[in-house]
Design goal:
- This protein has a three-stranded antiparallel sheet.
- It has a single domain, classed as Orthogonal Bundle (Arc Repressor Mutant, subunit A).
- It is α+β, with helices and mostly antiparallel strands.
- It starts with a helix and ends with a strand.
- The chain has four helices and three strands, in the order H-E-H-H-E-H-E.
């Protein structure tokens, strides 16, 4: 499976875990184990994205919950070149 993951990263440089799970049609937990292996071997790295809003801003919780799925917030896996 790590070969398929690396092929996807050659097409596009960054993914969040939900996008990868959908593209590969695998379970998120199984995918996390493979991604951890690729991280430990230095093939991938993690970039963290934060929302540009404060915790007290209206709609923060809504944006936080919805945008993590789309990759606007949270951890993004990036190919180490």
């Amino acid at each position: 499976m790590s070969g398929k993951i690396l092929e996807l990263f050659r097409e596009r440089k960054a993914f969040n875990i939900f996008e990868l799970a959908l593209r590969l049609q695998v379970d998120k937990n199984e995918l996390e184990k493979t991604l951890d292996t690729l991280l430990s071997h230095g093939k991938l790295r993690i970039e963290r994205k934060k929302l540009p809003y404060t915790d007290s801003s209206p709609g923060y919780r809504y944006l936080k919950s919805r945008s993590s799925i789309r990759g606007f917030y949270g951890e993004t896996y990036v190919l180490n070149e």
